[in-house]
Task: structure prediction
Amino acid sequence: MRFPKLPKGEFPATIESLTLEGRGITHINGKATFISRALPGEVVKFVYTNCKKHFDEGDVVSIEQPSTDRITPPCPHFDQCGACSMQHLAAEKQIEVKQQALFDQLQRIGKTEPEQRLPPLAGPVWGYRRRARLGVKYVIKKDRVLVGFRERRSHFLADISHCPVLDPRVGEHLTDIASAIGMLDARATIAQIEVSCSDDRVALVLRHLEPLSPQDKARLHAFGLNQNFDIYLQPGGTDSVHPLAPESITPLLDHQPDFDVAIGFKPLDFTQVNAHINREMVKLALHWLDIQPGDHALDLFAGLGNFTLPMARFAQHVTAIELETTMVQRAEQSARANGITHTTHQSHNLFEPDLTQPWMQKTYDRILLDPPRAGAEAMLPHIARFKPKRIVYISCHPGTLARDTDSLVHEHGYRLIATGVMDMFPHTAHIESIAVFEP
Result:
């Protein structure tokens, strides 16, 4: 397959709007061009980075007329590192852009206007990220190890000294982590690090492509003790993850003090990256669910019980459905550890609903769903059949939320009574949102 050659040189453009990914949109000879690091209203010069049949892509090289909303990115690595896409826009403007993007999608795709627009849910914009996958690379020419994120539009690692978005227990110690790996005999075989933080602990999972020597394990153990890191090793697939020194490992717990709940998790389990926003999100979801004594509630895409266990503090019974059996088991363990005995946890593929399942044949008073980016399309007819008094939908993609809203409102007779965004990922284009439905 032959790819068109990229136009050479720098080209002027006036930016019209932003995409959901935070890129500027312009039209050149009638063809849409998406330009990274450009803001609406700006006149820029850019270079082409990709040409496709229906659209082109580019990156800013200079700002000729800046937007009044443009700021100097606080992180010195922003122009090089590809982890953040919106640091050139003030944080309060970022959330406004995300809020407007949500409403635009609901109007255009969902053909629906909410009865109430909720104020954005915001929190700390620095040091919030508790989960991340960091690349690791031993660079022979530099004779040192790099630890961090990929460069923009590149498979190479950005050469960064710190990350102000990561939890500071990790983000301020990237060079320490890199130096520790650089001392290993196996430094060239460490491929990546999974970061997973709780309130009390920091777990680092090192993916290594060859067995580690006893000497390297001893060096890593000493480093973990010195930095207060729990070191895990991953010699193969995700099921191969194990603590380097089990006797020094402390369990990871996600605390939700407003509901007197602590949820246990393993380093590679899915948990929300932003603990502050997650706690506020759970409180907001419980407020809108408005669970009453005697209610039977249903939590779909329940994961480890992030919503299930707080819901159980109010409902007569909560049924939690999640695909991953290991997460179902851990959620059940957490329920029991918190003294919660009126929950049922089951594994089920919600993208292929099975009507023969007993839980599918019941009715529920309140339903919480928190699906992945693909949304909950296959479950919507069944959710309507359950006849809930209130539905709270947590979404990580406004497009699929808008599609599902169209179905709930125009096919199943529900009203969208409230919606708004939650800034789970400041400085990125990721849009987390909440939508509330009533019959």
About this structure: The chain has a mean pLDDT of 95. The longest strand covers residues 55-65. Residues 131-197+202-250 form a domain with the OB fold (Dihydrolipoamide Acetyltransferase, E2P) fold (CATH 2.40.50.1070). The two ends are 52 Å apart (CA to CA).
